[in-house]
Amino acid sequence: MVYLRDGSILAGCYDPGLGEFGIYKTTNNGLIWINTNTISGLDYPSDFVLDTNDDVYVFIGGLDYDGVYLSSNNGNSWVNYGLSGYHPVTCLAIDSSGYLWAGSHLDGVYRTAGRTVPVELVSFSAEVNGNNVLLSWVTATEINNQGFEIKKQVMSSENGIGRWERIGFVEGSGTTTETKTYSFIDENVIDGIFLYRLKQTNFDGTFEYSNTIEVEISIPTRFSLNQNFPNPFNPVTSIQYAIANKQFVTLKVYDILGKEITTLVNENKEAGNYSIDFNAAELPSGVYIYQLTTPGFIQARKMILAK
Fold first, then answer.
1. Are 276 and 291 in contact, with CB atoms under 8 Å apart?
2. CA atoms of 243 and 239, how far apart (whole Å)
3. Second CATH level (architecture) for the domain 119-217
4. Where are the domains of the chain?
5. Chain segment 114-157, per-residue pLDDT in tens
6. What does each C-alpha distance from 156 to 99, 163, 186, 269 come to in angstroms?
């Protein structure tokens, strides 16, 4: 049973002897009860919870319906919110952050975002390519999301802390239940240790910080070309190389007879460590040569395409 903010009451009923099933509602303190008729049959509603935005959740178990159900109109209609096919849920709860928790008999505890969670951040990661840092993050749901401020902190060698600075902004998707992928590139980063985090901001001005990730940029002291990985490969492999100082760099791929196949890099590069993917989907199996060339350095290696 749950008391709603509009003064009505919802109660689950399961009485096979009387033939009464489903979720009943009263608006006059229990004098009259009306079956909502949206969920009925051999089902037993149990453990209602009420969210801060007046959403109501309930677990339904039985022959006809199964899972956690949501009502956004004070119990007049219900939609399935997940956990169908699991062992009966014995308890539901909503925490202060808006996440819905469900304890399932003999099957563990489950958590999902309720509809008051502004943004459910699934992942936040960083990848270093030369002197650039690629930040990537994924959201599962968004509500009222204006966007993400990208924050960066330089770690001081003296005390290990620094000041957070805003280095960019990426617009959000407003309100959506679809998975969204975002990215931001912090370019021309000098060597050192850096911290990154996201400040997710809503249209109403509220905000929340993500977890913090650490990135270390180290400038190589010599030029080098690493063995591709994986090797053998099919059809994509990664080639990593290091540039000790600013140079014009070319990275080309040849067949075993020395015929040029493609140019992967042909530009000025700052000092740093780099990685680039080579896709050989249109090429036949065989041995290929990739060669790194700068004004003062040349190195080549073999790689095997095995289809």
1. no
2. 13
3. Sandwich (2.60)
4. 2-113, 119-217, 224-305
5. 766 678 899 999 988 877 899 999 998 888 899 999 999 986 55
6. 37, 9, 19, 27
DSSP 130: B
d(CA 302, CA 176): 47
Task: With residue 260 as reference, give the H or E element that holds it.
Answer: strand 260-269
Q: Do domains 119-217 and 224-305 have the same CATH topology?
A: yes
Residue 274 sits at the vertex; the CA angle it makes with 245 and 297, to the nearest 5 degrees, is 45
Largest alpha-carbon pair distance within the chain?
91
> And the tokens for 62?
């039985």
CA-only gyration radius of the chain, Å: 29
Q: Which residues contact 108 (CB under 8 A, 6 or more apart)?
A: none
User: CA neighbours within 13 Å on the CB side: how many for 99?
Assistant: 10
Return the amino acid letter for 207.
Answer: F
- pLDDT, one tens digit per residue, over 42-75 is 456 667 788 777 788 888 766 555 678 888 888 7
Calculated CA dihedral for residues 224, 229, 235, 241, nearest 10 degrees: -20
Each residue's pLDDT tens digit, 87-119:
667 788 888 767 788 887 777 888 777 766 678
Return the CATH fold of 224-305.
Immunoglobulin-like (2.60.40)
- CATH architecture of structural domain 2-113: 6 Propeller (2.120)
CA atoms lying within 13 Å on the CB side of residue 193 = 11
Nearest alpha-carbon partner for 12 in 45, 37, 39: 45
- The burial class, CB within 10 Å (0-12 / 13-18 / 19+), for 222 is exposed
Report the predicted TM-score, pTM, of the whole model to 2 decimal places. 0.52
